[in-house]
Design a protein that fits this description.
Elements (H helix, E strand, L loop, with lengths): L2 H15 L9 E6 L7 H16 L4 E6 L7 H10 L4 E3 L24 H10 L1 H7 L7 E7 L3 E6 L13 E4 L3 H10 L2 E4 L5 H6 L5 E5 H7 L7 E9 L2 E6 H6 L2 H35 L3 E3 L4 H6 L1 H11 L1 H16 L5
Parallel strand pairs: 1-2, 1-3, 6-7, 6-8, 9-11
Antiparallel strand pairs: 3-10, 4-10, 5-8, 5-9
Helix pairs in contact: 1-2, 2-10, 4-13, 6-12, 12-13
Length: about 325
């Protein structure tokens, strides 16, 4: 079954579940994210909503709001803290304003494969310690959805850092991302995701960077047709719940929600990875120019990024790099 059919089935199931049995109480929860309806995180959110209804005997209904309807990524996370929404899913680096060390997950070129990234996010003791800081900030991580390796879409060809000179690239608000893009040679423009397509179309920025699934679902390749597979940062999207919401759940319901999140994450990971090549082929068929450049010049360009990180975060850099190195040794990239 293809993704569109799966989405239709999930939506139908949710519609059926939206009617609670007569006489029963039902609590409605809000799940807000910034992806488009055809994107991987939206499909994962719908899958999660379906499982929550199933595992709580329809006592809880999760309404999913896509496309930044309730706010951009920083706003969604702020609303988690205040209790204005119940769930969101966003890039790990988006949570860094609340847990500063999560900036380090945006260090460039740490992983070479999805399997390495999954093992790190599932097993890294350093990362678990950072995630464990979140409840004190007003939210907690339940599972890690997939988004992919970040790549670049630009109006003009991008074959090496030399092609970045004098050009402005949009990204999301994250200190590490700003450093690495500036080290590559770009000027950096921060703006909400819904504004990016028009900004590129009007020439306010030369392009943007995001995982392939996000590039595809937002159709950035239409206005920035040079899709360059830099894979400069592995960028999964942890799903979080408001700590205020979590505290209101019974222990039994907490287990049900956590189980639903874990299952949704596994399903989402598989869907995103399976769909990436198909998305690239479809984009190419619509005029996108897919470029797989030599990564070494980009790797060389971002070496100063690591020095800046060590100057600010010290031993935490050594710890995350040690865990990343252990993962790469355990799961060597295929030649």
């Amino acid at each position: 079954m293809n993704t569109q059919k799966q989405l239709a089935c999930i939506a139908a199931a949710l519609a059926a579940l939206s009617f609670a049995p007569a006489g029963s109480a039902q609590t409605v929860l809000k799940f807000s994210h910034t992806d488009q309806q055809q994107g991987g995180r939206h499909a994962g959110a719908l899958f999660f909503a379906n499982k929550v209804a199933e595992y709580t005997n329809n006592r809880y209904k999760v309404n999913v709001f896509c496309c930044s309807q309730l706010g951009n990524d920083p706003k969604n996370i702020e609303q988690l803290v205040s209790g204005g929404i119940d769930f969101t899913v966003s890039a790990t680096g988006s949570y860094a304003p609340h847990v500063d060390t999560l900036n380090l997950t945006m260090l460039p070129f740490m992983f070479d494969s999805y399997e390495q990234g999954w093992k790190f996010y599932d097993e890294s003791k350093w990362l678990k310690a950072q995630f464990d800081k979140a409840p004190a900030k007003g939210f907690r991580f339940l599972a890690t959805f997939e988004s992919g390796f970040r790549c670049m879409t630009t109006r003009d060809p991008l074959n090496s850092p030399a092609d970045a000179k004098g050009k402005k690239l949009r990204t999301f608000p994250n200190e590490m991302m700003r450093w690495l893009l500036e080290d590559i040679g770009f000027g950096v423009q921060i703006m909400p995701l819904p504004e990016v397509y028009l900004a590129i179309q009007q020439g306010a920025v030369a392009g943007q960077e995001n995982p392939i699934d996000t590039i595809y679902s937002n159709k950035f390749y239409e206005v920035a047709p040079h899709v360059t597979l830099t894979r400069h940062v592995y960028s999964p999207i942890p799903m979080a719940v408001s700590e205020k919401t979590w505290a209101r759940l019974s222990p039994e319901d907490q287990k049900a929600v956590a189980k639903a999140a874990q299952e949704a994450a596994v399903w989402n990971r598989n869907e995103v990875v399976a769909g990436e090549e198909k998305q690239l082929v479809e984009m190419a068929g619509k005029g996108a120019k897919i470029n797989n450049p030599d990564a070494q010049p980009f790797r060389d360009a971002v070496k100063p990024t690591y020095e800046k990180a060590k100057a600010k975060w010290g031993g935490d850099v050594d710890s995350i790099l040690a865990d990343a190195e252990a993962v790469r040794k355990a799961l060597p990239a295929k030649k």
